[in-house]
């Protein structure tokens, strides 16, 4: 397993998640921004870097939205449509590392590692997933790595990444809009947050809301755990005004 030394980032501060296009000037207000790699040109990325922003490229590590491939499983994500993958398949590792290398050459300064929660669906793939994260760490060091949840990979995951995102910490999207989690789930999330804060990683929250009241509740609750909280809509297509 490849470990890493702590990388310091003097700006610190918030991270934004935006899967839309354009909005370079508004994105420049954040310290780090998570973007879809194909949505921005090299010139756009360079413009953010010049302004002191660290752009992070989205990477899915256990789901594939591309054309049929030998590493794909027959099952797919019912919400987003991507096929689950055999994480240990050499072709999948080559695919992910190839994309990471390409996006790094285009100017990205780090990666957002998504779809890490497979401990209940494909637990046998957890060791392969840690190996893949370690390979990304080795390929991209000292770029910033931000993991989305990945609780089933802790504490080993904390030795390989710089930050952990707690997505949907307080609120969630439901069939008819957005709502807080029920009290029992909030209690479980609080225990996970306390565990994360005991590790040597930066910790952030991402919540979903469509009203100022719900957004404020999510941000205030995350602040009690010392987590900067970004609030958006389900498609991550909005930025705060």
Give the helix/strand layout.
Elements: E1 15-17, H1 24-27, E2 32-35, H2 42-50, E3 54-60, E4 63-64, E5 72-76, E6 83-85, H3 90-105, E7 110-114, H4 126-140, E8 144-148, E9 163-167, E10 171-174, E11 177-180, H5 183-197, E12 202-208, H6 212-224, E13 229-232
Helix pairs in contact: 3-4
Please give a handful of descriptors for the protein shown:
241 residues, alpha/beta, TIM Barrel, eight-stranded parallel beta sheet, three-stranded antiparallel beta sheet, 6 helices, 13 strands, globular, disordered N terminus, GH
Describe this structure in words.
This protein is α/β, with parallel strands linked by helices and 241 residues long. It has one domain: TIM Barrel, CATH 3.20.20.70. Helices cover 30% and strands 24% of the residues. It contains six helices and 13 strands. The chain has helices at 24-27, 42-50, 90-105, 126-140, 183-197, 212-224; strands at residues 15-17, 32-35, 54-60, 63-64, 72-76, 83-85, 110-114, 144-148, 163-167, 171-174, 177-180, 202-208, 229-232. Strands 1-2-3-7-8-9-12-13 form an eight-stranded parallel β-sheet. Strands 4-6-5 form a three-stranded antiparallel β-sheet, with no helix packed on it. A two-stranded antiparallel ribbon has the order 10-11. The longest helix has 16 residues, at 90-105. The protein is globular, with a radius of gyration of 17 Å. The chain starts with 14 loop residues before the first strand and ends in a 9-residue tail after the last strand. Residues 1-12 have low confidence and may be disordered.
